[in-house]
Amino acid sequence: TDPGTDPGTDPTEPGTDPTEPGTPETGLGIADATLQWGIRASFRSYVVGPIANGTTAATGGVTMDASGFSWTGGTGVADQATGTALVAYPGQIRFTGHGGQLDLTISDVRLRIDSATQATIVASTVSRSLGSTEYVTQTGIDFATVALASAPAAASDVAAAAIAEGTVTIANAPAMLTEAGAAGFAGFYAAGSELDP
Q1: pTM of the full predicted structure?
Q2: Sign of the C-alpha dihedral, residues 97, 58, 185, 147?
Q3: Which of its termini does the chain have fewer beta carbons within 10 Å around, N or C?
Q4: For residues 44 and 56, what is the distance between their CA atoms, to the nearest angstrom?
């Protein structure tokens, strides 16, 4: 087994929120942050479609609509000197289908800005792959990488991820599934697969 991967039986307990290495200890406080992310549109469609015939439930502060999910009330810290930040969002999303054979919960979502050009979506997952009876829990994994430099910014947006006082907006940043994220996705997609921006 991989470190941080623990078979279990409860799909709703992703574990505790570990302290992230590299978390800025001083700097700017972040409050009322929002995150809009669809995870992967084709997966959302598959889950509720006629093959999986499943459901998607967003709880604890996450809402959903046709375009994806919205997290609100994010809090965290940013370091202006290093251009890094960590924002944590409450709530979870649970996908079920195939009569319960497909079961995936994503929770404890955090956006970690590593530089002006690179960020990471950190999350905890509890998943069961098709044909398996065991749940696998992964806590605080690097779920997806986010290319900030590729994010086209509107006129009112801040280019890339300049950490500054005030409101910082990053739009349409491409996201890619990591190896740990692929395992947390119950093997549905390979590492390197494109996710929703």
Answers
A1: 0.80
A2: positive
A3: N
A4: 8
Under 8 Å between Cβ of 93 and 57: yes
Contact of 135 with 7, CB cutoff 8 Å: yes
Going from the C-alpha of 185 to that of each of 79, 83, 91, 128, 145, the distances in angstroms are 31, 30, 18, 9, 15
**Residue 65: enclosing H or E segment and its boundaries?**
strand 62-65
* Greatest distance between any 2 Cα atoms in the chain: 51
CB atoms within 10 A of CB 190: 10
Helix (H) / strand (E) element for 102: namely strand 102-113
Question: CA-CA distance, 187 to 136, in Å (whole number)?
Answer: 11
Closest to 147 in 3D by CA, of 189, 87, 185, 195? 195
Residue with tokens 């409101």: 167
- The alpha carbon of 103 is separated from its chain's Cα centroid by a whole number of angstroms, namely 17
Regions of the chain short of the pLDDT cut 50: 1-9, 12, 14-25, 154-160
